[in-house]
C-alpha cells in the first residue's frame, strides 16, 4: 500500500448533531480519537450529486460545472438535465461538457495510483464519484449493476456474497452487503490507493420518515455497526493507511408543501423547482433580472435569492452567485431557495424546517438550501497522516477533502480550489499543525421588506458559507 492511501467513507445526509455516541457510538469514538473538524460544511446547493462532484474535484460548483441536481444543460435542450440519470451524464460526457475540473480518479491515474468505488447511491451519484472510471479501468461496484458497475468486479461480488438485497428503508441489508463487498472483495482484489465507500443512509430514511424518526435512528445504527466492522478490519492491519469519514450534507424537516410546482410565470423562462430552484430567463438583461427578483421577494415561498448582473452589478433584493461559489456559465440566471426557519441563532434537528416542493410527505427530511442543518456535516480522520485526539475549529468544506488526501499522498493540487487541512496533518512539512486565521462576515440584501443574510467564513482568502437565512417579510412565520 502506497504512502497516504485512504478510504473515504460517506454517511449520506448525516447532520453533525445526529452523529452522537448514543446513535452512532463507533463513529463518535472515531471522531473523538482522530482529527475532528467540528465546523465542516457542505456546498450550495446542498444536494447530493453537487456534493459528490465537489468532493471528488476539490472545487465548488462554480468551477466544476455540476451546478444543481437538475438544471438546464445544452445536451438536453428540450428538458431538464438530471444528474441522477446515467443517460444524461453520458450525453454530457460524450459532448465533453460533464466536468470542467479533474477528478480524483484522473489524478490517481496520472500519478500511477489506483482507485476504487463501492456505492449504494443512485446511478448518477455513483458515477460522479469517479466519472471516468470505466475509461480509466478503475473498478466500481454499484448496487445498480451495469453500466455503473465494472462487470468483472460486479460478478466477483455476486459470486462471493450472492444476490444483492432489495432496497429498503431503512436500507440496512444493502449497507451490510456493501460493507462485505468492500472488505471481502474490493480490497483483496484491488488494494486501491484511494477508495470511496458510500452509504446512502441515513439520507433515504430521513427523506421518508423524518430526521429524528425511529426508522432513521435505526438506519444510523445499522450504518454505525457496519462502520464498526470496517474499523475492526482496518485495525487488524487490513486496507489503507488512513480512513476519512464524511457526510455530504444534512437534512431538515419539510413543512408546508407547495400546492403546485407551477409557481413561476411562464413568461420568465424555463425553471427547475426544488429546495433549490432555478430560473433560466428568456430575457437575460439586468433590467429583467431585477423585475424577476422584485416579483420573487413578494412571494410567500421565497427564501434567499441569487443573481449576477451582466458586469457583476448588484441586483436589489439578491445576493451574487459568487457569494455561494456557484457562479458557473451553466448556472441559472436567477436562483432561490424555498423559505426555511431562521438558523442564525437557534437551530437543531427538531427546530429546522423548510417549505418543500414535492416527492416527500410532510415531516420528511429535505435538503438543498442554506439552513445550517443542511450545511453542517461530519468530517473526521484517523491514520498516520492525521493528528490523534485533535479538534479543529477551523472552518472547512467538501472541496477541502480532495486536497487534504492529495497532500497526504504527496501529490500535486493543481486545479483544486479547496485547501488542504494542514492543521490536522502530521509530518515534516512546515505548514502541518498550524491553523490559518479566519475572518467572519455577513452579507445581506433587502428589498420590499424581504431581508436575506449569508454568513461566510474567509480562510486564506477563500470563502466558505456557514449558513443563510431570511427575515422581515421573508421570515418563516409569516
Automatic annotation (TrEMBL):
Entries under Gene3D superfamilies matching the protein: Alkaline Phosphatase, subunit A (3.40.720.10)
A UniProt-annotated Pfam family: Phosphodiest
Domain of life: Bacteria
GO molecular function: hydrolase activity
Name of the protein in question: Nucleotide pyrophosphatase
Amino acid at each position: 500500500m502506497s504512502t497516504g492511501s485512504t478510504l473515504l467513507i460517506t454517511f449520506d445526509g448525516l447532520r453533525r448533531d445526529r452523529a452522537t455516541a448514543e446513535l452512532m457510538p463507533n463513529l463518535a469514538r472515531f471522531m473523538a480519537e482522530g482529527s475532528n473538524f467540528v465546523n465542516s460544511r457542505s456546498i450550495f446547493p446542498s444536494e447530493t450529486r453537487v456534493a459528490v462532484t465537489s468532493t471528488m474535484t476539490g472545487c465548488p460548483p462554480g468551477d466544476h460545472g455540476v451546478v444543481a441536481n437538475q438544471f438546464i444543460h445544452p445536451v438536453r435542450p428540450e428538458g431538464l438535465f438530471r444528474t441522477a440519470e446515467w443517460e444524461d451524464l453520458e450525453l454530457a460526457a460524450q459532448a465533453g461538457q460533464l466536468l470542467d475540473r479533474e477528478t480524483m480518479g484522473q489524478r490517481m491515474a496520472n500519478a500511477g495510483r489506483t482507485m476504487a468505488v463501492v456505492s449504494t447511491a443512485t446511478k448518477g451519484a455513483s458515477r460522479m464519484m469517479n466519472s471516468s472510471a470505466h475509461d480509466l479501468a478503475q473498478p466500481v461496484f454499484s448496487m445498480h449493476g451495469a453500466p455503473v458497475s465494472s462487470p468483472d468486479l460486479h460478478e466477483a461480488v455476486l459470486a462471493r456474497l450472492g444476490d444483492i438485497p432489495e432496497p429498503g428503508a431503512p436500507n440496512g441489508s444493502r449497507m451490510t452487503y456493501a460493507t462485505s463487498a468492500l472488505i471481502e472483495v474490493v480490497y483483496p482484489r484491488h488494494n486501491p490507493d484511494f477508495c470511496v465507500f458510500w452509504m446512502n443512509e441515513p439520507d433515504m430514511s430521513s427523506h421518508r420518515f423524518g430526521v429524528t424518526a425511529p426508522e432513521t435512528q435505526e438506519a444510523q445504527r445499522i450504518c454505525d455497526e457496519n462502520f464498526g466492522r470496517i474499523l475492526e478490519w482496518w485495525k487488524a492491519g487490513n486496507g489503507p493507511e488512513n480512513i476519512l469519514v464524511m457526510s455530504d450534507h444534512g437534512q431538515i424537516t419539510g413543512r408546508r408543501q407547495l400546492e403546485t410546482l407551477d409557481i413561476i410565470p411562464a413568461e420568465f423562462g424555463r425553471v427547475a423547482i426544488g429546495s433549490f430552484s432555478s430560473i433560466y430567463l428568456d430575457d437575460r438583461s439586468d433590467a429583467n433580472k431585477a423585475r424577476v427578483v422584485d416579483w420573487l421577494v413578494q412571494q410567500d415561498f421565497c427564501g434567499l435569492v441569487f443573481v449576477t448582473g451582466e458586469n457583476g452589478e448588484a441586483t436589489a433584493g439578491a445576493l451574487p452567485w459568487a457569494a455561494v461559489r456557484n457562479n458557473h456559465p451553466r448556472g441559472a440566471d436567477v436562483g432561490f431557495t424555498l423559505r426555511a426557519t431562521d438558523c442564525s441563532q437557534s437551530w437543531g434537528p427538531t427546530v429546522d424546517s423548510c417549505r418543500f416542493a414535492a416527492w416527500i410527505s410532510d415531516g420528511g427530511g429535505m435538503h438543498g438550501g442554506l439552513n445550517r442543518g443542511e450545511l453542517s456535516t461530519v468530517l473526521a480522520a484517523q491514520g498516520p497522516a492525521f493528528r490523534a485526539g485533535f479538534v479543529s475549529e477551523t472552518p472547512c468544506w467538501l472541496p477541502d477533502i480532495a486536497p487534504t488526501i492529495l497532500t497526504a499522498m504527496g501529490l500535486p493540487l493543481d486545479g483544486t480550489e479547496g485547501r488542504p487541512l494542514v492543521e490536522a496533518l502530521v509530518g515534516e512539512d512546515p505548514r502541518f499543525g498550524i491553523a490559518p486565521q479566519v475572518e467572519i462576515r455577513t452579507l445581506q440584501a433587502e428589498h420590499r421588506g424581504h431581508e436575506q443574510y449569508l454568513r461566510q467564513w474567509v480562510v486564506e482568502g477563500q470563502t466558505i458559507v456557514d449558513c443563510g437565512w431570511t427575515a422581515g417579510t421573508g421570515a418563516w412565520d409569516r
